[in-house]
Write a structure and sequence with these properties.
- This protein has 763 residues and is α/β, with parallel strands linked by helices.
- It folds into five domains: 130 residues, no CATH class; 144 residues; 153 residues, Heat Shock Protein 90; 126 residues, Response regulator (Rossmann fold, 3-Layer(aba) Sandwich), CATH 3.40.50.2300; 59 residues, no CATH class.
- Helix content is 56%, strand content 11%.
- It is built from 23 helices and 18 strands.
- It has a five-stranded mixed β-sheet, covered by helices on one side.
- Helix 16 links the parallel strand 13 and strand 14.
- Helix 2 crosses helix 3, helix 2 packs parallel to helix 5 and helix 20 packs antiparallel against helix 21.
- The longest helix has 104 residues.
- The N and C termini lie far apart (130 Å).
- About 1% of the residues have low confidence.
- The chain binds adenosine-5'-diphosphate (ADP).
Length: 763
């Protein structure tokens, strides 16, 4: 309804004003222009294209077109001028009547003629973009919408593909994609061709532009007024006075319009010029910015490369540290193991005990270095997983305090332990790592205090534990506070005090605190003392599991039948160490130097447990474990327990895939208590204090089998004995315990034991 009312109202107003009458006359005139225009287009399509005067296909993209194609514009202009002149009656009434036809025919003649004359050069301003794939859709870098190839053009100003719409709307690119094809350049080129050089170069100045613009505008005004004058004067042709009055009115209007046009043109030229200057400045700034962005991009690429290289180097470092730890741990394992055994060996003379103690101390120091480095490498590479479990907090604290109270007492300094508020019975924490932090901080306090004492204070509130360790020791100079948290950095006072240390403890303690989501702060005054504070989230466990593991009792053996353990390790010293530890406890020990040998041995010796090394030549421990499991399943045997004893702390993550509990992954050097703890769980043993005799189920070797063994033993032919033992095992597995024991003796070159076991006299 609104539309109807609105449109009817407009129509009524126009009729009242006599606009339709005026329109009728004007439209008659303009129809000539319209016919000339349509004629030019039709001529181009139906004559020029088939004749090959214009390129095949029709191009619509502004980026590919000249602003002015003389074929269309020229033929339309010539046809319009001719037909309008005819329309005015200048060529007589006949031509006036046929002015429309004159427009059409002229356009039809001019279009091919101009195309021929210009050789069709002004149809396409640039070649098609070969980089644009015809099949795919392309994304516009400005509006970020996707279009087909026909709608896209490669834009040098935006350095990408842009769509036709964005291209048409952009006014700042100055048609950089088609040099020489803009209106301004085309006009200049045309003028340069038509006018003498001196004049054409002058025209390309401010005054020249002004004069050109003024000429165009005044021509348009003159033409328009002339047309209106002709129409008006024709209407009042009989009245001379009226024509005079009308004439003087038109003249005045014409003069005023020319003056206004002159001023406006000057303003337009100045405005255009200032816009161009501003545009040039903006372009300059843009290109500077682009250059800066390019430089940043390059720097960014270099930084990324440097970061990648640093990460790779870090990874290489972690691998290197792991490798070194493997190499160091293997001999250390034996050094510490044997030192531990020798220390408790009553046959060692007292004079030599000190030497053994030194070996053990040095080994321990070396081990703490290796462990420290490993911990740092593991934390840095994100491979250290916290083993959070229930922890009996008061017992744990009592152990820690007890350890340092004794050390402080021995040093002659006071040690005060102070609990503020309630301390929960059980908290959730990684016992090993929490202990590592506290032992380091409290240990340092005791170590670096010569007089006065150390106060260890615990405040536990809202599941947050604050450990405060205060001492009256040598203190740390302010400029060293940051440095001492770096690996291998030791304070100047500490070095001067003669206290030994690795310089790794604080680094690890701080890293572990951060890993647990806590924080460590320190303030210290040289000569007065230091205060370390560690805040950690240790949530209380209100309903703890019934029994938490306690320490192992003194072990002499175990109850029940004798158990067989197979040690698989390529390092003979490590095998021997384990055998030496376990054999006295009543275990029957077998050994294999490789995964293959272990696989060969298991069906004969039927071990109850396998202690397996990981890093072995040939098939490694993981593969051995997998094959053992497969064999066991195939033979319908029950699950064979495997405990991994590896020098590589980084491999622990692979236990799940091998069907081994993470707790059964022990890192060398293994503490005897830890190992026995795992063996007890794996075999379901009950330890017994004091000497124990386990029931054997040995089948004595019949003489026809024992005799050749005795003979080989008398000859000392170890290889021959081993082959014979293997053969016996193959023939009859009943004797595997006997052969196993004999094999162990022979491999240790204990031929006397071997012969004694066979009932022969050793020579
Ligand atoms: P280490 O104790 O093996 O030298 P740490 O990493 O544990 O290595 O400590 C680094 C350094 O921090 C020490 O050498 C010492 O200079 C300083 N430091 C740590 N704790 C204290 C403390 N309680 N009093 C004085 N200095 C300390």
């Amino acid at each position: 309804m609104v539309w109807v009312v609105f449109n009817v109202a407009i129509a009524l107003v126009l009729m009242q004003l006599g606009v339709f009458k005026a329109l009728e006359q004007v439209l008659g005139l303009y129809s000539n222009v319209a016919i000339a225009w349509v004629g030019a287009i039709v001529a181009d399509l139906v004559i020029n294209k088939p004749l090959g005067l214009s390129p095949p296909g029709i191009e619509f993209k502004r980026a590919h077109l000249y602003d002015i194609n003389p074929v269309g514009v020229g033929s339309m202009l010539i046809a319009s001028i001719l037909s309008i002149t005819a329309f005015t009656g200048l060529f007589g009434p006949m031509a006036q009547a046929f002015s429309s036809f004159i427009a059409l025919i002229t356009a039809f003649i001019c279009a091919p003629a101009i195309a021929y004359a210009t050789k069709g050069r002004y149809y396409l301003a640039r070649k098609p973009d070969a980089s644009l794939n015809a099949a795919a859709e392309h994304r516009c870098v400005i509006c970020e919408k996707s279009y087909e190839r026909e709608d896209m053009a490669l834009c040098p100003a935006y350095r990408g593909n842009i769509c036709s719409l964005c291209c048409s709307l952009d006014a700042r690119c100055h048609d950089a994609c088609k040099p020489g094809a803009s209106l301004r350049e085309q006009t200049n080129a045309a003028l340069a061709k038509l006018l003498p050089t001196a004049l054409s170069s002058r025209l390309d100045s401010r005054l020249g532009h002004y004069l050109l613009l003024l000429t165009i505008v005044t021509s348009v005004i003159t033409g328009a007024l002339a047309l209106i004058w002709m129409q008006e004067s024709a209407a009042v042709v009989t009245d001379a006075a009226l024509i005079d009055a009308l004439g003087s009115g038109f003249l005045k209007l014409y003069a005023v319009l020319i003056v206004i046009a002159a001023v406006l043109c000057w303003w337009l030229v100045l405005n255009g010029e200032s816009r161009r200057v501003a545009q040039e400045e903006s372009n300059r700034q843009t290109s500077l910015l682009m250059r800066e962005i390019d430089a940043h991009r390059k720097t960014d690429i270099e930084l990324q490369a440097a970061k990648l290289a640093a990460e790779r180097a870090n990874l290489a470092k972690s691998r290197y540290v792991t490798g070194i730890s493997h190499e160091l741990r293997t001999p250390l394992n034996s050094i510490l193991g044997y030192a531990e055994m020798l220390q408790h060996d009553p046959s060692i003379p007292v004079a030599r005990r000190d030497a053994v103690a030194v070996i053990r101390r040095s080994g321990d120091h070396l081990l703490s270095l290796v462990d420290g480095l490993l911990d740092i490498a593991k934390i840095e590479s994100g491979k250290l997983a916290l083993e959070v479990d229930e922890l009996r907090f008061p017992e744990f604290l009592a152990q820690t305090v007890g350890m340092f109270r004794l050390a402080a007492h021995n040093k002659g300094i006071a040690f005060v332990y102070d609990e503020q508020g309630k301390v929960p019975a059980v908290v959730r924490a990684d016992k090993k790592r929490l202990g590592q932090i506290l032992i380091n901080i409290v240990g340092n306090a005791v170590k670096f205090t010569e007089a006065g004492g150390v106060t260890f204070r615990l405040r536990w509130r809202g599941d947050i534990a604050s450990f405060e360790v205060r001492d009256s020791g040598i203190g740390i100079p302010p400029d060293e506070i940051d440095r001492i948290f770096q690996p291998f950095e030791r304070g100047s006072q500490a070095s001067a005090s003669g206290e030994t240390g690795t310089g790794l403890g604080l680094t690890i303690a701080k890293m572990l605190t951060s890993l647990m989501g806590g924080e460590m702060t320190v303030d210290s005054t040289p000569g007065t003392g230091s205060r370390f504070e560690i805040r950690l989230f240790l949530p209380e466990v209100r309903e703890p599991r019934a029994a938490l593991p306690t320490t192992l009792p003194d072990i002499g053996g175990y109850a029940g039948p004798r158990r067989r353990i197979l040690v698989v390790d390529n390092e003979a010293v490590d095998r021997r160490f384990l055998i030496n530890v376990l054999e006295p406890l009543g275990f029957e020990m077998f050994e294999a130097a490789s995964g293959i040998e272990a696989l060969r041995l298991v069906p004969h010796v039927h071990p109850d447990l396998v202690l397996l090394d990981i890093g072995m030549p040939g098939i490694d421990g993981w593969e051995t474990a997998r094959l053992l499991r497969v064999n066991q399943e195939q033979n319908g045997h029950p699950h064979l327990p495997i405990i991994v004893i590896s020098a590589d702390a980084f491999e622990a993550g692979r236990t799940a895939a091998a069907g081994i509990a993470p707790r059964d992954y022990l890192v060398k050097p293994v503490g005897v208590a830890t190992l026995l703890g795992r063996i007890r769980v794996a075999l379901g043993l009950v330890w017994i204090a004091g000497p124990v005799v386990n029931d054997g189920d040995d089948e004595a070797l019949p003489d026809h089998l024992a005799q050749p063994l005795r003979e080989l033993g008398a000859l000392g032919h170890v290889r021959g004995i081993l082959d014979k033992l293997d053969e016996i095992d193959r023939i009859d597995s009943r004797y595997h315990r006997q052969t196993g024991r004999l094999r162990a003796s022979v491999k240790a070159f204990q031929l006397a034991d071997y012969l004694r076991a066979l009932g022969a006299e050793a020579k």
